[in-house]
Amino acid sequence: MSGVRPNLRLVTEPAHVIATRTFYDAIAEDYAELFRTELDDAPLDRALLTGFAETVRREHADPSTVEAGCGPGVVTDQLRRLGLQVRGIDLSPAMVALARRTFPQVGFAVGEMGRLDAADATLAAVVAWYSLIHVPEGDRPAVLAEFRRVLRPGGYLLLGFQAGTDTLRLDEAFGQQVSLDFHRLDPDAVVAMTEGAGLELVARLVRAPERRSSAAAVPQAAVIARRPG
C-alpha cells in the first residue's frame, strides 16, 4: 500500500429532503387513495393545466417536460393526456412505485428537484405542483436556478402552491407519527424569486378558498414563468 489515503467526501442530504422522503414514504398508500381523483372536481386546476400544456405545445415541437415532486402521478398523467412528453420524479420511492403501478404509460423515477437528471437547456417545461412548499425559504433560490438550468430558451415553468406566509407543521398523518413542514408562499415573493432566477413572469393567479374542499381551504396560487429566448 502506498500509505496515501483517498480523499473521501461525506455527502449529506438537507434535512428537509430527508423529512419529505420519510413523510411521504410512510403515508404513500393513504395519500394516493385520498388524492386519486383530485382533479375530477377541480375545474379551475384542470383549466390551468390545460392552458399551460397548450402554451408549451404551441411553442415547442418537442414538449419534453418534467414534473418535479410528482407524488402518485395524477397530475403527471394529466399532463401526458394534454399532449406533453412528460416524466415524473419524486423523493419518495414509495410514491414512485405507486405512480408506476397506476400509470404505466408514464415514466417515473426517484429524484430530487434541486438536482434534476436533465442536461442544460433541454426541457420545454418544468412543473412543480405543490412540491416547492416543502423547501425552506433559504433553499428555494437554488431550486429555481436548477429549474432555469434545464429549461431551454422559451421553456416554461409552472408552480402551484398554497398562498400565505405561514408554515403548517404536521406531526401526524393517516395515523403515522411523521413530521413535515408545509410552507405557504406569498405569490409576490414567488414572482420575485422566479425573476431573480432569470425567468420572465407569464401569469400570476390566486384563487379564493373553496369551502367544498378541505385541501383548498386556504387561498391557492399558481405562477407561470418563462426562460427568455
The largest sheet is:
7 strands, mixed
**Widest sheet, order of strands:** 3-2-1-4-5-9-8
- What sequence of helices (H) and strands (E) makes up the elements? HHEHEHEEHEEEHEE
What is the count of helical runs?
6
Distance between the termini: 55 Å
Name given to the CATH homologous superfamily = Vaccinia Virus protein VP39
Structural class category: alpha/beta
Oligomer: single chain
The proportion of strand residues reads 15-25%
Molecular structure report:
This protein has 229 residues and is α/β, with parallel strands linked by helices. It has one domain: Vaccinia Virus protein VP39 (Rossmann fold, 3-Layer(aba) Sandwich), CATH 3.40.50. The chain is built from 6 helices and 9 strands; from the N terminus they run H-H-E-H-E-H-E-E-H-E-E-E-H-E-E. It has helices at 15-34, 43-59, 74-81, 93-102, 140-150, 187-196, and strands spanning 64-68, 85-90, 107-110, 123-129, 151-162, 167-170, 180-183, 200-207, 220-226. It has a 7-stranded mixed beta sheet with strand order 3-2-1-4-5-9-8, with helices on both faces. The longest helix is centred in the N-terminal third of the chain and has 20 residues, at 15-34. Mean pLDDT is 92; it is low at 1-10. Residues 67-155 form the Methyltransferase domain.
